[in-house]
Amino acid sequence: MSTSVMSSKLLEQAIQDRRYLHEHPELSGEEYETCAYIRSRLESLDIEILDYHPPSVVGFIKGITGERTIALRADIDALPIEEEGNKNYISKKSGVAHVCGHDGHTAILLAVAEWLSKNRSEFESDVMLIFQSSEEVTPCGADLLVKQGILQEVDAIFGIHLWQGLKKGKIGLSHGPMMASADDFEIIIEGSGGHGSMPHETVDPVYIATHVIQGLQSIISRKLNPLTPGVISIGKVEAGTTYNIIPNSVRLSGTVRGLTYASVKLLRENIKELTKGICTSFGAKGEVSYIIGTPPLVNDLEQSGFVEKVIRNHFGNEKFALVEPVMGGEDFSYYLLKKPGAFVFVGMGGEKSSFPHHHPKFDIDEDVIPDAIELFIQLVKNFK
Ligand code: NI
Fold first, then answer.
1. Domain for residue 3, yes or no?
2. Which CATH number fits the domain that encloses residue 44?
3. Per-chain mean pLDDT for the chain
4. Ligand 1 centroid, distance to 251 Cα (angstroms)
5. What DSSP assignment string belongs to 84-113?
């Protein structure tokens, strides 16, 4: 176990940054003032800024050898929600608030940037600092940056989330799948309507829809390996106008979650096939529009092993937590589709952070900010 490399001044600045960002939240895709703030901090530290599509800001710092490049990512967007509570740094913008902790992520990466810029002789690899817009929406910021080629020169990428679901004092990850995909779909069942008293003269799409809804769950229970998690949920059913008219069509809207690329593909293909098959067998037409969202977040085993080693060596064995995968989504997964890397939860669950992410009273526990900064710095120092 080694001691912290940070000064108290650096930590004070991180808290100050975090509170400023918390008071001035911006929605996904609109983070222009946040970017201006980040940009001016990076410029004052003499950090090169790379040219990527705003409102994301990407900094670059050369290492001693520059043989490899490590990327660190923070998401910077807030949510459309009215913040509640009485903290003295509460959101100054009505209806917008940092209730996922991205203000903390941004402040942490700024502190890392400051430390790296002032200790350039202490790390070998080049470092890319990605302050990423639009984590919370589709299309998301990560996908956009990857499409712009941001990872071309990158060997590995790391990201954190301050995590209320993990106990304060722990830092951890899963080796392999860690967070779920989030796809949506819409099914239109086209039948042939008519009088409710004469069903034999119709092709009743409402009746057929009941079979489709039931059938979809058989994909989970009969197609997916029982040891592989997966969810299919129908959240919206739309049909008909009154008691005695069989409508022409039914529209079903639903969502799909999975933890591996293979399971998500299996769910997608089976939803299409089964819907078509059931509808055809009843003489109707079934069309599935599938909206591919965030892919599952799957940590690279070599890099997640590296993170575990850094946590154990630097903070001590008791700090490390092997995290159970969660069914929430995270657009960091787009980076991991392209390059190896790992996503890490920094635990903060406890008295100071007791409300779940996205709750109007959610707050981060600032006590864990130093560990998060230290983790990023140690990943850079130890990256080979
Ligand atoms: Ni988040």
1. no
2. 3.40.630.10
3. 96
4. 31
5. -S--TT--SSTT-B--SSHHHHHHHHHHHH
